[in-house]
Amino acid sequence: MAKDDNSGKDLAAADSSGVGHEGAPAGTAVVVRDAVANPGFPPHRPRVTDLDPSAERRAERTVYTLFYLSIVGSVFAIAAYMAFPIVPEDPGSVRMNNLFIGLGLTLALMAIGIGAVHWGKALMFDHEGIDERHPVRGSDETRTRAVEIFQEAGSESGIGRRTLIRNSLIGALIAFPLPAVVLFRGLGPQDDNPAALLSHTMWKKGTRLALDPTGTPIKASDITLGSAFHVIPEGLQDLEHGRLEEKGKAAVLLMRLKPEDLNELPERKGWSYDGIVAYSKICTHVGCPVALYEQQTHHLLCPCHQSQFDVSNHCEVIFGPAKRPLPQLPIAVDSEGYLIAQSDFTEPVGPSFWERN
Amino acid sequence: MTTINKPKSAGRRKSGRRHPLSSVALIAIGLLFTGGAYAAFSTSTANAETSATSQQTIGEGKKLFAANCATCHGLAAQGTGSGPSLIGVGAASVDFQVGTGRMPLQMDGPQAQKKAVQFTDEQIATLAAYVSSLAPGPGLPDSNLLDAKGNSAKGAELFRINCAMCHNVAGAGGALTQGKFAPSLDGVTSKHIYEAMVTGPQSMPVFNDMNISPESKRDIITYLKYLENNPSPGGYALGSLGPVSEGLFLWIFGLGAIVALTVWITARSN
């Protein structure tokens, strides 16, 4: 494409005389009548390396030394790989391995780069030149010829005439991306309605609250004032598959406040037990685990976007982008003193989705 | 036997910190060994709660308390408008709050901050003995739980589940609401980590033995000490603060280097 009209030609003298480049086609530039005259190039200033042969030799030496250094760096990287192997039992060995290989490779690449730039700046031909920009519009004969080529191709291939071939090709191209759609669908839930999956968790009536990660059931008497327990439904740790998916929905934070500090909604009076409350740990904003519990202010902070929930006030949002309070898990105590869920969450946990009511 | 181990290890840590001042360190070691014997004595009594603690120790603690703590916590530690009741907080709470310098409180603020410790180990022990004599509460941890020789992998898992959301996965600390923050755990002694878990100082929730068993607490301490004593495999960790410090570093030094290189490449050679 680019045609170098002036390659290798010294234009400095011609242009600094203010002649400009009137001979060149204007291209797409708008030519105004009162255009400022082209000031041309400033006078050419020779470099030290142009005038002083010893400086030139020194620059040459610098450049090839840098290239030799690059070789040293490459060899050093290979040597470092062998001298500092990664020992599986010792994470500290990764550090030395990365450090020295990295230093070697940095030297290898940086020395080539710096050497090349220095070569270009100090030793290569440095006289200023002009490459004119070509007009974007092609010449008339080029344009006519291009149209001809298209017409020839159309008639020679017969794409306008053989409609069956053309249409089946279009059909084939449309069908080709479809397998991708099916394959990606396969990554999602298979036989269930995703909205229904998001609306229900593993909690159901009578499920014991268990400690994360051991799965030990929790007794109400275990929870002292000011405690925060990270809770999973009992049985979750034994799931063969889908454990993380279930945990991602069912994770619960269990806290004990003074009963008089709790301001409970009238319809949720029976959902706590002696100041023990259980709330979903999944933020209603975008689903981060909300677990930064301040036991004195009873505030829960989401670390991702700083939403704050007031545990003493049914986890109402007091700051941040979350729109809904954290869903509360209704809890009770069974005959053996273990905490159990009264039911599943009464609303979907986590962030909003289209089908959420 | 086991109780004698703890003050010894505490002494070693102290002297390590004062290493450049070797004469001071020597005196400190000497003092700590004498104080250590006393601390061992008062530790075992604190574990036994009320019965075995000598009445004299409690009396001394009461005097110290009246002079230094009663203004806010009340003469009988019953609490006032400016400080909570200390009845039932136990020796662990006193040892943590006073032993890290958080108490006596320097000034009102979002939270009490760590500062130079205001009392000697001996005085802290008498204060703890006095407060734990008021009502049963969490005692000082057993020294075999503080040896950092548990299972660090298990400790890391428990730390990620229970602690990392506030204290950062590498224990570097993090922000809470309205000026409060979870402090960095780097350099905090095993004893203070254990006591903080048991007592839940300030904003921190309580992690009692039913939630995280003493063995598991030992694992968590092991993990934290592992982090403290082993260099980060990824090289310089920039405070382990994640994208904030790493991003800032790249914006300033990475972009700065690119700008400098660009200026050099396009500058005329002379």
Automatic annotation (TrEMBL), chain A:
Cellular localization per UniProt: Cell membrane
Keyword Cytoplasm set for record: no
Keyword Protein transport included in the entry's annotation: no
CDD domains for this protein: Rieske
Pfam family membership, one: QcrA_N
Superkingdom, natural source: Bacteria
CC terms in the record's Gene Ontology section: plasma membrane
GO molecular function (one): oxidoreductase activity, acting on paired donors, with incorporation or reduction of molecular oxygen
Membrane topology type: Multi-pass membrane protein
UniProt keyword list: 2Fe-2S, Cell membrane, Disulfide bond, Electron transport, Iron, Iron-sulfur, Membrane, Metal-binding, Oxidoreductase, Respiratory chain, Transmembrane, Transmembrane helix, Transport
InterPro entries for the chain: QcrA_N, Rieske_2Fe-2S, Rieske_2Fe-2S_sf, Rieske_Fe-S_prot
Transmembrane segments: 66-87, 99-119, 169-188
All residue ranges annotated as the Rieske domain in the record: 249-340
Region (Disordered): 1-24
PANTHER family on file: CYTOCHROME B-C1 COMPLEX SUBUNIT RIESKE, MITOCHONDRIAL (PTHR10134)
Family: Belongs to the Rieske iron-sulfur protein family.
Main function: Iron-sulfur subunit of the cytochrome bc1 complex, an essential component of the respiratory electron transport chain required for ATP synthesis. The bc1 complex catalyzes the oxidation of menaquinol and the reduction of cytochrome c in the respiratory chain. The bc1 complex operates through a Q-cycle mechanism that couples electron transfer to generation of the proton gradient that drives ATP synthesis.
Protein name: Cytochrome bc1 complex Rieske iron-sulfur subunit
The species this protein was found in: Cryobacterium algoritolerans
TrEMBL record, chain B:
Keyword match Electron transport: yes
Keyword Nucleotide-binding part of the UniProt annotation: no
Entry's EC annotation: 7.1.1.8
Keywords: Cell membrane, Electron transport, Heme, Iron, Membrane, Metal-binding, Repeat, Respiratory chain, Signal, Translocase, Transmembrane, Transmembrane helix, Transport
InterPro entries documented for this protein: bc1_cytC-su, Cyt_c-like_dom, Cyt_c-like_dom_sf, Cytochrome_c_Oxidase_Subunit
Binding-site list for heme c 2: C163, C166, H167
Any one GO molecular-function label of the UniProt entry: quinol-cytochrome-c reductase activity
Transmembrane domains' residue ranges: 248-267
Subcellular location(s) of the protein: Cell membrane
Annotated residues for binding of heme c 1: C69, C72, H73
Secretion signal span: 1-39
Any one GO cellular component localisation term in the record: plasma membrane
Domain Cytochrome c: residue ranges: 56-135, 150-228
Topology within the bilayer: Multi-pass membrane protein
One Pfam family recorded for the sequence: Cytochrom_C
PTM characteristics: Binds 2 heme c groups covalently per subunit.
Catalysed reaction, written as an equation: a quinol + 2 Fe(III)-[cytochrome c](out) = a quinone + 2 Fe(II)-[cytochrome c](out) + 2 H(+)(out)
Quaternary structure note: The cytochrome bc1 complex is composed of a cytochrome b (QcrB), the Rieske iron-sulfur protein (QcrA) and a diheme cytochrome c (QcrC) subunit.
Protein name: Cytochrome bc1 complex cytochrome c subunit
UniProt organism field: Cryobacterium algoritolerans
